[in-house]
Known about the structure:
The structure holds 4 protein chains of 4 kinds.
Chain B: H1 2-30, H2 34-59, H3 64-91, H4 104-112, H5 116-123
Chain C: H1 2-22, H2 26-46, H3 50-77
Chain D: H1 2-21, H2 26-43, H3 57-86, E1 95-100, H4 106-117, E2 122-128, E3 131-136, H5 144-151, H6 153-163
Antiparallel strand pairs in D: 1-3, 2-3
Amino acid sequence: MVNNIYLQIATVITLIAFIIGMYRFVKGPHKADRMVAFDMVSVAGIALIGFIAAFTNKLIYLDVALVYGILGFLGVVIIGRYIERGF
Amino acid sequence: MNQEIMEIVGGIIAIIGSIFILLGAIGIVRMPDTFNRIQTGTKASTLGTILSLAGLFFFFPGWGGKLFILVLFVLITNPVSSHVLARAAYHIGVPLTKKTVVDQLKEREIISNPSSANLKKVKTNEIGD
Amino acid sequence: MFIIIAIILGVISLVGGYIALTNPKLSVGIIATGIVSLVASILFLLLAAPDVAMTEAAIGSGLTTVIFFYVLNKIRQGNA
Amino acid sequence: MKFKNYLIMFITLMVVWLLLNNSVAKEIVLVGLGLSLVLPFLFCGKCDLFNHFKVTPKALIYTILYFFVFIRELVKANWDVVKRVISPKLPINPGIVEVKTVLKSKIGRIILANSITLTPGTLTLEMVDDTLFIHWIDVQSTDIEGASNAIVRTFEKYLEEMYG
């Protein structure tokens, strides 16, 4: 268990970024704006999982970050392809 | 002693990275249209995530391999996804902001394919999509 | 520390679920479901279950989004 | 030519496997060797992406130089974003401009388009053959020559040596 004040501050700032990104997701007038918010939240989630892995001192949690990144990217590409011209 | 210095340096790098992520989120809220939002969101969140993971490297030098793979992955896939988003947003006709000075892609498409403006109208559907 | 992360992520998950329920557009609902499952995967990670988190990210975000959009496309073309 | 593609694929897979496993025990290296020898046969039937890949010392030096130029541009882009987001008046002047590239190979154009997305104030919208349409947050010139000089010349110098 790592208790480092700098990492805690960084985690809180990342969580604030999450909330601001969700504001754009709630408000977004067009569905493309919601997709932008989805992309940003999924990239910020990688950093958040990295911080959680540092707090608990377990290397295996970084694998979750890798899977998370791959599937967030896949989701964004699928959604973009769909709303552009269908499958 | 050495360990403490490394932790301070890594912590400061991680804080700078998270500040970049926060600025990307603020840019997403403040910018006036979709393309400018994609610009600020992509750039700031890419560098922010890379700096956060690089800060973790100073805490745990043994995690270097996996952190390197993650950084490389973020660096490769983030521009691709933002390009896909921008192209989809342009082709479904998301309005540009009023400050836009020039749109050369639109002039080009009208010249090469005059009926494309009609095709987009037909594709809109009735199931509330 | 973990309790703060859990509370904020739970609130975000509730907001995503509310949008998925109330928004009249179907594609927005599917994107909101994706956000709910991504947040749920971080919550599973906080509960010290990385295998469940990996499965949740794969099924909830990858497979469900693909299948929902595939079906939506079929409905839109009118042959299903 | 075929053997070079196979070799690049094998080295990439092996390095990724070793970095992911984070150890060099005997069993792990053996399994990695077996997988990376078999997988390119299955998935690299006619991959022509690496045909223009040069393995000369000059190309290697330019690759390293390109990496540093790219990092510098990335930091500059983020400083630019910070200034635009923080300032209260939002100083933007956006537009979509058309630029042309001299690169011929496929992988060179891919790397160029990805790099343009991460450099100050530009975002690749559409790519048709050698013409790129770019959303520019602060338009300075609207003709093809001026825009090309301002946006793509920085990277083209290096990518031309690397991939032709």
